Amino acid sequence: MKSLRARLVLSHLLPMLLIIPLMGIGLIYALETQVLLPAFMTAYSGQAALVAEITQNQYRIWTDPIYAQTILAKVSPRLPARVMFLAADGRLMASSDPGDIENLNKVLINSAITSVQQGNVVKRVFYNRSLQGEALDIWEPVIDPVLGVIGIVRITYEFGSISGQFVQQRALIAWVLIIGLVFGGVLGLTLAVSIDRPLRRVTDAVNKLARGESSSPLPEAGPAEVRQLAGAYNVLVERLRGMEESRRHLLANLVHELGRPLGALRSAAQALLKGAAREPQLSQELLSGMDSELVRLQTLLGELTHLYDQVIGSLELNRQPIPLAQWLSEVSSPWEAEAQEKGLAWSSDVPPDLPSLQADPVRLGQALGNLLSNAVKFTPPGGRVDFSAGAEDGEVWISVKDSGPGIPPEEQEKVFMPFYRGGQGKRFTEGMGLGLSIARDLVNAHGGRLELQSAPGEGSRFTVRLPKG
């Protein structure tokens, strides 16, 4: 009973094996006591009334036991029951049962006699599952219009005379219940198999996935819970594929991004070793270039650190009050200098009355730095970068707009994906393609959102929206 299929079958069969017999017993009892016996009572009451009507004018029957026994001998063979004639005072005048002969002309002791002497018809039903003994007992008064009750007709039907119909009814109910039990078992087995098959399919797929074998999406069919399980597996497979693709991109980008600065650093080091160190100007240029390459490596390390935090979910914020106007001026000033050095026009519109903001200055500064870096990097000389901020509708917004090549609509959501570089790398020509992904993650971590408005040839506007407080 360790398999799910066996337990599901038993979960159907065991209740049925307990409930169906109890239902059968209850149904048999209800039918026999509430349907069959009342129906027999109604039918046989007419026979007792007919006998009473026939004997109504036979006054001698109620006074002469011998005459009464003679008349009863002619009537009783037509009735499948025990028939008694009793005088009005309860004396037994005749009986179709030979065992009652010795009690002739004796008064019977029975609680029904008093009620019948008052002109009432007494009907009693006896029931037992063994179908033994009496079943129906009918006491019919014989009433003379002048004298009143002159006699009593008692007809008693035993189960032996009607047991055939009871047995037939019980057999029919038993067969119906057995057929229901069989069909229930077959249905339980079918349902168990229908549930077990997709579960086995998911189990086999998970085992293959654990062994590193190729996996494909599963059909989401069957009960709702099984469909949810298959859907969760498909999401897992898709995510693993995405992670594998990201891993390949990461490896390729690392080789590319590490190769260039390391090559430049080695070339500079070789030049210094071969005598360039003796020439002050050349030595200064080489050291300056090496410093730039080391800055690139440090930036790359920061991006990889954030990617690791994103994967393991360990991104934590050190929130503190930030005087927004002053802080934005400090964050943007290095990029303003870089933009001017590149020959770009720089515009800054930061109101001095901006509210304070509860945020992590390092993390939020990293997000804005990535946006400003992209704007300066991908705007051609002679272009323009606009940096602005404001507050409205319970939000603080910070905007970075450039006059670069712009982003096509079909790529505007993809640029926030890790390692994505845009159409043929036209916009994101260098770096690992992590800057915008990191920026959006950091803004989302602050409870805000990062919006993009762009069109080819019209530049791009990135807007950070953060809740006040």
Q: Which percent bin holds the helix content?
A: 40-55%
User: Strand count, sense and closure of the main sheet?
Assistant: 5 strands, antiparallel
CATH superfamily of the largest domain: PAS domain
Number of domains: 3
- Report the count of strand segments: 12
How many individual helices?
9
Please report which band the strand proportion falls in: under 5%, 5-15%, 15-25%, 25-35%, 35-45% or over 45%.
15-25%
The overall pLDDT average reads 80
What is the CATH topology classification name of the largest domain?
Answer: Beta-Lactamase
Note the overall shape: rod-shaped
Low-confidence sequence ranges: 424-429
Class per helix and strand makeup: alpha+beta
Radius of gyration from the alpha-carbon trace, in angstroms: 51 Å
Q: Cα distance, first to last residue?
A: 60 Å
Strand order within the widest sheet? 2-1-5-4-3
* CATH architecture label of the largest domain: 2-Layer Sandwich
CATH classification class of the largest domain: Alpha Beta
Helix and strand run: HHEEHEEEHHHEHEEHEEHEE
Essential attributes:
469 residues; alpha+beta; Beta-Lactamase; Helix Hairpins; Heat Shock Protein 90
Write a structural description.
By secondary structure, this protein is of the alpha+beta class. The protein folds into 3 domains: 4-168, Beta-Lactamase; 224-312, Helix Hairpins (Orthogonal Bundle); 320-467, Histidine kinase-like ATPase, C-terminal domain (Heat Shock Protein 90, 2-Layer Sandwich). It contains 9 helices and 12 strands. A 5-stranded antiparallel sheet has the order 2-1-5-4-3, with helices on both faces. A 5-stranded mixed sheet has the order 7-9-10-12-11. A two-stranded antiparallel sheet has the order 6-8. A hairpin with an 8-residue loop joins strand 3 and strand 4. Helix 4 (159-210) packs parallel to helix 5, helix 7 runs parallel beside helix 8 and helix 8 packs antiparallel against helix 9 (435-445). Mean pLDDT is 80; it is low at 424-429.
